[in-house]
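User: Fold this one for me? It's Serine carboxypeptidase-like 18.
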Amino acid sequence: MDKDAPVGTGFSYSRSLEGSFTSDTKSAKQSYIFIRKWLMHHPEFFSNPLYICGDSYAGMVVPIIVQDISDGIEIGHKPSINLKGYLLGNPATDRHAELNSQIHFFHHMGILSDELLESAKKHCKGEYVKVDPSNVQCIKDLQAVSQCTAKLNPSHILEPSCGQVWTPKCKKIIRDRNLLEKNLCSNLISLPPIPLLKCRNYGHMLSYYWANNDGVRKALNVRKGTVQEWTRCNLDGINYLKNVKTSTGYHLSISKRHYRSLIYSGDHDANVPFFNTQTWIRSLNYSIIDEWRPWFVDGQIGGYTRTYANQMTFATVKGGGHTAPEYRPNECFNMFKRWLSYEPL
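Assistant: Here's what I get for Serine carboxypeptidase-like 18.
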């Protein structure tokens, strides 16, 4: 099952202004309510195993949904939900920590020199986001970092930097994937150019025409008069409060209840670097039961993986970006299928 969340995204809407205001925790509770109501209308699925899945910013919300479902099971909410675990791809967990880890990711990928990294570490003392304006040398080092990285595509550092694509009627543009942290908009006099066919986000433009086609809306049972225009990444159309700073504590709580989890990262994603994902997983302090090794698809390395005692599997997707299935669909499908079947990746 799937739904557009939080309210205001996709084809979802609220009948009242009050109902349009939501947050990390409120959106999670609404998702839990949706799952319960859906199951009540489809009792034939009561016994089916349930996994909660998401990518990107869902890394903040999905663990809360799992926690809410688990709490409901503990206190006997009906219907009884057969929750088995969750999956997260390129998940945001602590945005400040993720932004701080970018400098190490860029160095690891050969984009920053050893000398620049060492200088930044020395003068910034590990803090590359909230920098003291009086720290002149740190700011100078970070300016040098920006010069090396400004023209990269942060969603996948090996792909062309084509800019962000918005709908033909859109009046604003937001820097690619900064939606994870905050809305950085600037009014435009003219619309951004149509991307070249070589640009992956050419499909983002086409999605506008697909989603606003009357036949598509009818097939999706979208009620007439509700959402006038479908907009990709509709940040201006939602009232959303990011009231959870980090979701790591939810992962720890869920782990204690023995739910399975698969956390995977495209290894060329600079938005949520796998460096930081590995760091917060290690912070849960569970022992390793299956040491770091490659996993294969069609005889080729699909990525690398490690499994922990809390039934959490971490995997990188070789050549994947933000998010991994967009760039490596075959590898991600095989990873997903094997994990669901309790098979080694």
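One thing worth pointing out: DSSP finds eleven helices and ten strands in the chain.
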